[in-house]
Amino acid sequence: MIEVSRLSKRYGGADAVRDVSFACAPGTVTGFLGPNGAGKSTTLRMICGLTPPTEGTATVHGVPYRRIPNPGRHVGVLLDAAAQHAGRTGREVLTLTALATGADRSRVGELLETVGLPAKAAGKRVGAYSLGMRQRLGLAQALVGEPSVLILDEPANGLDPEGIFWMRTLLRGFADRGGTVLLSSHLLREVEAVADRFVVIAGGRIAAQGTRDELLSGT
Ligand code: ADP
Ligand code: ADP
């Protein structure tokens, strides 16, 4: 469960995010849609305790992210796959994430396979990865602590159509087993087939939210 209540973030005199409220329920995928610069990353960073809000609150399972004990065991986060440690191999990066979250290290090999980074790819330096491979590794990092909530910022960026289909299947399965997914994208086609609900943000404000049918009927 994710609950966002009247979140705002001001940088200088400008509102990056203004009065944003929404909730994501267990068992659902929420598509967080908006053009570049709309305020998606800022909102997700506030939910994850990385950017302090100017106003408002965000909680995960009823608690602000920063007060969750061992958050990696509850919330899987993928915010910027391009920022991964370039000098380490994918396997090293995921092993370090597993150690940091107290997750089961024996999951590392299997999880790398699951995200499409078999032994050969996992043994390469992340600096040599394509953006799509980094997204796959980032998703493995988000999943390694066996969280019940996933918060993913533009995870489809850099994935090819087959990769997008694969990620959609994985996220659908995660939600169908009771997980909560918040998934941002600037492209409707990346999220429309997987999301149960949509939150549309533009210019830092919520433009619309609801199911596909609700949005299409304008209610
Ligand atoms: P999105 O993720 O939807 O592309 P962002 O949340 O990254 O949008 O950005 C929303 C707005 O806030 C943009 O106008 C961006 O330039 C601004 N912004 C984001 N981060 C900062 C920052 N650290 N300092 C100043 N302005 C920022
Ligand atoms: P529970 O033990 O009650 O199933 P968890 O917190 O372990 O709760 O997980 C919540 C949901 O997320 C479960 O439905 C679980 O199957 C799913 N989940 C957890 N980790 C993964 C993963 N690595 N890949 C896919 N789904 C996962």
From TrEMBL:
GO MF annotation list: ATP binding
Lineage top rank: taxon: Bacteria
Coiled-coil region: none
Domain ABC transporter span(s) in chain numbering: 2-219
Keywords from the UniProt entry: ATP-binding, Nucleotide-binding, Transport
Record-annotated membrane-spanning stretches: none
Family to which this protein belongs: Belongs to the ABC transporter superfamily.
Protein name, per record: ATP-binding cassette domain-containing protein
Taxonomic placement: Bacteria, Bacillati, Actinomycetota, Actinomycetes, Streptosporangiales
Residues of the full protein shown: 1 to 219 of 294
